[in-house]
Amino acid sequence: MLRLYFFISLMCLVRSDTDETCSSFTRLGFHSAVVGTGLRVKLLLYTKRDPTCAQLINSTALGNLNVTKKTTFIIHGFRPTGSPPVWIGDLVEGLLFVEDMNVIVVDWNRGATTILYNHAADKCRKVATVLKKFIDHMLAKGASLDDIYMIGVSLGAHISGFVGEAYNGKLGRITGLDPAGPLFNGKPPEDRLDPSDAQFVDVIHSDIDALGYKEPLGNIDFYPNGGLDQPGCPKTIFGGMQYFKCDHQKSVFLYLSSLRENCTVTAYPCDSYRDYRNGKCVSCGIPQKESCPLLGYYADNWKDYLTEKDPPMTKAYFDTAEEKPFCIYHYFVDIITWNKNIRRGSITIRLKDKAGTTTESKIDHEPATFQKYHQVSLLARFSQDLDKVAAISLVFSTGSVVGPRYKLRILRMKLRSLTHPERPQLCRYDLVLMENIETVFQPILCPKLQL
């Protein structure tokens, strides 16, 4: 039995067609973080041919790297415990799933592993210098800067920026996944990632109030859930280490969802998260022929459109569900009331299909104002997409614990899908909502507009 275990372990380390062993990401412990680590950069190459077996390469030995193909560098950030990032394997696999390319994991764990964050941050430019030397060798062998793509996580985002700056912004693309904020906030463009570091720079900000960078850094900057508290992450310190790193890491998992999941996360260019939540930006501000920007790998679909802008930059907002695949499905709920007096409050809407599946949206981020004969358009966000809605329920609430219970008299309610605008719009007329009491009804098809 022991011999069998040894044989299986050995096979996992050896490539199927050669005697070369598979290289692995440097694994260190907390002891290394306490005493500190000197910088050492390892480059681990993965290809379609060997998607799970890394080849160690360097600036004088490119190994199996095909310089005629796209090359994507993955650059991690600060590692206070010395362990490998839990997402590395999934990111490599996902990238190779969507495209036949070279994927190079930049392992600078010896250097990033320290309990002193500033020591790791100080090594960013040195890592960039190593990568510059390697890319120079690639270019000498026939590679093109257009085909270089860098995905940098936290400190890795700024390392990517330093590499891009060294090539005067001619790298094909940089994606920054929650670029590090501490020690970089307020720094000039040459000391951090910025839009001029590549032909296209996209950034996901998921922890702007703690470990991440708040201000825009790219051609398009995505702010999931406003860039603050991410759904599914612990809200208190009792969540342990996840409380400190979950929001920061969510940018990586959102990017991963764009590679393998069965839904695409759509974002909405907007001046603020509040305007997005209030439904002011759902048209994307572009002609109907253009789709809204997509988060993650396919964000560069907006490259040509953005380069026409002056400056070629935009911020985009969206919300996510707590769990994979993270997609949120948007609807507008248009309500015309006939109350004599103004009513202010929130609306909860629940949808149900014939199979009994339900999904709910609470529109309570700020009180809506309902006035007589005025249409209020509320942006509803659902975690499930129901193809055919059989029943709808509404709950109106003023949020008052004591005092009178109000009625909201609805002249017309209309539900229209933004995710699938081709679907028929659903209506209901003459409703009276008693405060905090659920009203269930079957919708009817809205009449088509007469041209």
TrEMBL record:
It is a peripheral membrane protein. The keyword Cytoplasm does not apply. It catalyses: 1-hexadecanoyl-2-(9Z-octadecenoyl)-sn-glycero-3-phosphate + H2O = 2-(9Z-octadecenoyl)-sn-glycero-3-phosphate + hexadecanoate + H(+). Gene3D superfamilies: alpha/beta hydrolase. Keywords: Cell membrane, Disulfide bond, Glycoprotein, Hydrolase, Lipid degradation, Lipid metabolism, Membrane, Secreted, Signal. It is found in: Cell membrane; Secreted. Pfam families: Lipase. It comes from the Eukaryota. InterPro entries: AB_hydrolase_fold (IPR029058), Lipase (IPR013818), Lipase_LIPH (IPR016272), Lipase_N (IPR033906), TAG_lipase (IPR000734). Residues 1-18 form the signal peptide. Residues 39-326 form the Lipase domain. Its main location: membrane. The keyword Repeat does not apply. Belongs to the AB hydrolase superfamily. Lipase family. Hydrolyzes specifically phosphatidic acid (PA) to produce 2-acyl lysophosphatidic acid (LPA; a potent bioactive lipid mediator) and fatty acid. Does not hydrolyze other phospholipids, like phosphatidylserine (PS), phosphatidylcholine (PC) and phosphatidylethanolamine (PE) or triacylglycerol (TG). This is Lipase domain-containing protein. It comes from Pipistrellus nathusii.
